[in-house]
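ASSEMBLY PREDICTION REQUEST
Request ID: AP-0331
Submitted by: J.K., bench scientist
Number of chains: two
Total residues: 230
Priority: normal
Notes: Please return the full assembly, not individual chains.
Input sequences:
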Amino acid sequence: DGGITQSPKYLFRKEGQNVTLSCEQNLNHDAMYWYRQDPGQGLRLIYYSQIVNDFQKGDIAEGYSVSREKKESFPLTVTSAQKNPTAFYLCASSRQGAQGPGTEQFFGPGTRLTVL
Amino acid sequence: QKEVEQDPGPLSVPEGAIVSLNCTYSNSAFQYFMWYRQYSRKGPELLMYTYSSGNKEDGRFTAQVDKSSKYISLFIRDSQPSDSATYLCAMRMYSGGGADGLTFGKGTHLIIQP
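STATUS: Completed
Returned structure:
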């Protein structure tokens, strides 16, 4: 089955700790994305990557870091500098290239992070 | 400027009714428009993808885009209780073939009453 997997599904962290969220895809997509969703809010872009070893900040990158060492993987680290990290985190991927059909973003099941 | 307005609801309708969900946006640079369905505690699922003004139909779903009014809609015909979910509109600008993130509305919580 092709798709996007995120782990863990639920994650609890103490204040002051860094934590890393996993995102893996086997869709052979070049581009990958991280979004954050808060209750009653739409998704907001944290980071995205168009190609291996390259990534760009989104609208709310402060307190987060990413790496893209493999095409299939795009882990997100929530650092202690993130002031309000409790949220639902969603990973997505898409094909690159010309705009239009075939470049839609598909989402994983999400990781719910709670800071205690 | 990236702003998308969407009424959060909840919108409650009886089973079988036609549902109309809407978003407005302010930035005319948005060129690509999507509707996602999200069940509670799940990832969003892509329903419709459009990039030109007019209508696009897929089964019980019709997406409508009016770029001159900066207004998009999703219509659901013969609504079912299983359609109860949050519906998110999303859009993005042309990025020359490169990747770019989506800008989302806050989502409309839809309830279909049996």
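REVIEWER COMMENTS: Residues 47 and 57 of chain A are 5 Å apart (CA to CA).
SIGN-OFF: pending second reviewer
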